[in-house]
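Supplementary Methods, section 5.1.

A reviewer requested that the exact input to the structure prediction be made available. We therefore reproduce it here, unchanged from the version used in the analyses.
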Amino acid sequence: MMTECTSLQFVSPFAFEAMQKVDVVRLASLSDPELRLLLPCLVRMALCAPADQSQSWAQDKKLILRLLSGVEAVNSIVALLSVDFHALEQDASKEQQLRKLLYNLENQMFFRAFRAFYWMHSSRKRKEAFYLDLFLFIVNLVSESNGEFFFKSSELFESPVYLEEAADVLCILQAELPSLLPIVDVAEALLHVRNGAWFLCLLVANVPDSFNEVCRGLIKNGERQDEESLGGRRRTDALRFLCKMNPSQALKVRGMVVEECHLPGLGVALTLDHTKNEACEDGVSDLVCFVSGLLLGTNAKVRTWFGTFIRNGQQRKRENSSSVLWQMRRQLLLELMGILPTVRSTRIAEEADVEMEPNVSVYSGLKEEHVVKASALLRLYCALMGIAGLKPTEEEAEQLLQLMTSRPPATPAGVRFVSLSFCMLLAFSTLVSTPEQEQLMVIWLSWMIKEEAYFESTSGVSASFGEMLLLVAMYFHSNQLSAIIDLVCSTLGMKIVIKPSSLSRMKTIFTQEIFTEQVVTAHAVRVPVTSNLSANITGFLPIHCIYQLLRSRSFTKHKVSIKDWIYRQLCETSTPLHPQLLPLIDVYINSILTPASKSNPEATNQPVTEQEILNVFQGVIGGDSIRLNQRFSITAQLLVLYYVLSYEEALLANTKTLAAMQRKPKSYSSSLMDQIPIKFLIRQAQGLQQELGGLHSALLRLLATNYPHLCIVDDWICEEEITGTDALLRRMLLTNNAKNHSPKQLQEAFSAVPVSYTQVMQILEHLTLLSASELIPYAEVLTSNMNQLLNSGVPRRILQTVNKLWMVLNTVMPRRLWVMTVNALQPSIKFVRQQKYTQNDLMIDPLIVLRCDQRVHRCPPLMDITLHMLNGYLLASKAYLSAHLKETAEQDRPSQNNTIGLVGQTDAPEVTREELKNALLAAQDSAAVQILLEICLPTEEEKARGVNPDSLPRNVQSVITASSPNKEMEEGEDNLLCNLREVQCLICCLLHQMYIADPNIAKLVHFQGYPCELLPLTVAGIPSMHICLDFIPELIAQPELEKQIFAIQLLSHLCIQYALPKSLSVARLAVNVMGTLLTVLTQAKRYAFFMPTLPSLVSFCRAFPPLYEDIMSLLIQIGQVCASDVATQTRDIDPIITRLQQIKEKPSGWSGLCKDPSYKNGSRDTGSMDPDVQLCHCIESTIIEIINMSVSGI
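The structure derived from this sequence is encoded token-by-token as follows.
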């Protein structure tokens, strides 16, 4: 189509713009041939009634008429417009129907007879009718062709004699009969006739508003691959002519091409046309940007569509200059050659002058303004070859290799270019085909190694290509070819298929000529660490290289120390956390503990020293200063903490393996761990979770495993309260006076405590407004003066404030705070020097916490602190013993001589040690519980004042259900508000937590037993006591009488508290056991057993009335047994037995007896000291109480 229209004149862009804007002045400046093409539209504008009635259009219309007055062809167009188009439309519709009936005959004979028929009817009306008939015929053929391209020959569209007249008629008919001749259908039909592009441009030029509609219609109906067919090429040429006529819309039309995924050749052709008109020579051309966007964009459909265009274009046997693909490749090659260095020395680097500066290259380099364009071209060629399957010609391959081995300037763009070039060499090794090219590549790689340090220092880019070289070398040495492929794809920014076999030659060059493994490790240690390493620094860094070398154990294999480099890199970190840091620490720890090979168990890396670790935490571990040392960031401190905790955990996990290899790496001392402010750092990390990535969660996991006493739930809840909204409001109330109080002033205020409490109260209140970290300097003064707060007369507000400040400090420095507090609360004994306990002492023996001053047991705020520490040290002791068990696991391992032939018995000592540890922990926990229960008992002094340990349930019941006198109510309130009651509540809360955490503790404590006076308190105050119902049957089955008595008494209280079906079954079991014991116990044991347990039967009946009959029968049976044993005293016993029978038969007549104190106290007939007599009286009182309870409905 391009060649067939070369002799015809097209509408110029100037003329089309004038028509589009109806610029009469511009139209007047057009030549006669240009104006002739636009006459159909101009004549219609001049003759038809306008919609615009303004004065300005009237003037423009006069100018148009003046312009047309001198053109002879106007008369013929006016004659065409004088036809009755309505009648013409009706005739055309009839003829169309007739054509459908005679389609086959007409299809064969129409064009043959058309010319003679035309001359026979030469009037204007008939001419227009037959032109219309011809156009409709072609349109119908196109619609019925089912997408198959055809070409119709007609002299009207081919002979120069008829072209102008045919164009005029076409424009007039389309404008007057748009329903019969839709412009998109006409445009589609014109593709099937000769000179169709010329007719199409004239048609659109006379209807300029239809440009976008026509272009979109042609593209939408076009082929997916336009270069493959004649119709596709004609469509592409027609659209190119349209875009040349209206160049401002060319890029918009290209966008339609990409949107529809049709006519890829058109998109490239339009881009080539646009590129030729670009003024910028140094920047990245529009062709490079367009093709790169298609292949590297996110739209997979577009990528596949354009890749198919490239592949199909290459499959054609011979490409000529008319092929769009050939033109694109040629243009890209010209752009590539245009930025290549013009002078290139043939000397190799070793022949260079030794006095030449290291940054002066023997080869001439790329200009700085060409580097970005060169990088874009490299990525484009990678996409063309890797994604679209382009096979470069020899010329393209040679020029690409010349560009890749160029030497860019030391700029960030230059670093990027070198990285891309290197990855392209790895991805497309076929570009290097001759020995000369291979030598050129080796020289360039050697230059990269030599110039890497200069590039990094000059460009200011931390992620330089030197790290990538090291990384690729390490991958080649470890044969991780898939990792190299991932690295190449990541650097190029595209997913391309690279066969591992294609890397074999590059592997040989790297491992044997450029980078041996020893050279790699030696060079890696000398690479400087990345300053302020964070996730914001992208690319390949030294840390990636060190990580891979650690994984492959290259450092230990060649005895290269890497410890100092890793320590320096950890110290040079900042937020957001780089994702490679945690894997680096993990693999470094593994290289410390695990030898590289069994044959050389000493081939390990060295751990970081304790002094280096302490240096990181300077400024945090001291009590005098809370400001962090600016030398190390919080990120560095958290990473070192992660290293220490992970190292200790890995050391314990690998104890057996290390013992088998007779290796014992050094563990960090407990004194070091005590000096690291773990909780303070964890709290800092909590506020930086988004920036620290997975570091915070990893630290929490290590903390929960190795330091459970720092993960107490209450502490986290307290910390949430301290850091919440209330804390923010308190900070707003912070005054300068509160900030000015020093620890020395607080000490002076405590010294004046016996005389005045005002000053210390004021300072303490001000301190509550400070944050946890700001309170650290006051911790020592606060704890050292706690002993003074135990004296009588200290206001409760001071005690509560001290408790509050202690809890705040506990969120940042718990371990050190606990040690100071335990030492401060020791009992003060004259002439006896107090022992200073350490953290290790308290973890070994947590019960030291309870060996405090006895006054603490009646000071609830300080007792709360003591219980908190006790809970923490009990947890710490468990972790300490578990760690100790793992550390000393090899001590009890049987020798090799003894284990021969004893398969399956080597783990027996380990099981024994585990059981001993569990037994020790159980004894420790139960001892703590027993001591706490003992604290709940009132002292002799408190008993003298009438304090009862079970006053809580009794007093609460009496206050709620009975209307007692005012005096009794006041006494009950005094009991409820006393210090003992508050301490009991605190202890019950702790015991509840311990029972829930480990129900075996509850079982062990109750099997040991405790004073029965505490049963009302424990059952009512410990919500988890219901778990005792599970083991009471086992406790009742014990042979010891005391345990059986304790079990029945405990069960009686549980039945009242938890009236459940399970409690009923256990109570029924207890009644049956009591009946069984009645038949086997001796007289002395019977008295000892039933005297304390008979009152429990009342509780059983109160909780479960269905047990009434069984219990009454049991009581009568007990009375009869007692009576039979004292036959000599029948005169004393018979009346009692008689009354028991009467009570059982007529209980309502004896219901009032319970009001008699003698029945309640069992003091009737106390003259007889016989145990059976006393037991009978107790039975009588029990029965009467049961009867009265059932009758009164209680």
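Residues 209-279 form one domain. These observations are discussed further in the main text.
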